[in-house]
TrEMBL record:
GO terms for biological process: DNA transposition. Residues 12-129 form the Transposase IS200-like domain. GO terms for molecular function: DNA binding; transposase activity. SMART domains: Y1_Tnp. It comes from Candidatus Hydrogenisulfobacillus filiaventi. This is Transposase. Pfam families: Y1_Tnp (PF01797).
Amino acid sequence: MARQFQSNHNVVYSCQYHVVWCPKYRRRVLIDGVDVRLKTIIREVAAERRAEVIEMEVMPDHVHLLISVDPQFGIHRLVRLMKGRSSRLLRQEFPWLRSRLPTLWTNSYFVATVGGAPLAVIKQYIENQKRV
């Protein structure tokens, strides 16, 4: 996979991140349509913020993303927007989530830059999560 650069008004960048986050208490609630709707919400937020979702996998109890984002916007702001909007919308659209959890997501998440590893390897790792 050839390295691709993006730019904004004053920065040329190539910043890819592997991000993982979980529902509160690591409950297995990302099922029965919640997973499909979550993927849609994540893609919408990414598109609004000019971020690129390179790979995504939603497991019943956690989310894996390989994403490229403008370093001036920041991965922390993008993750906060994705978790915030998805929590609000999913709890509105799937009322059973409100009865199972006080909040949808934990406060924490994992993020690692993938500059040192070939993107194809990280992408394959995320694709293979369902098979584990």
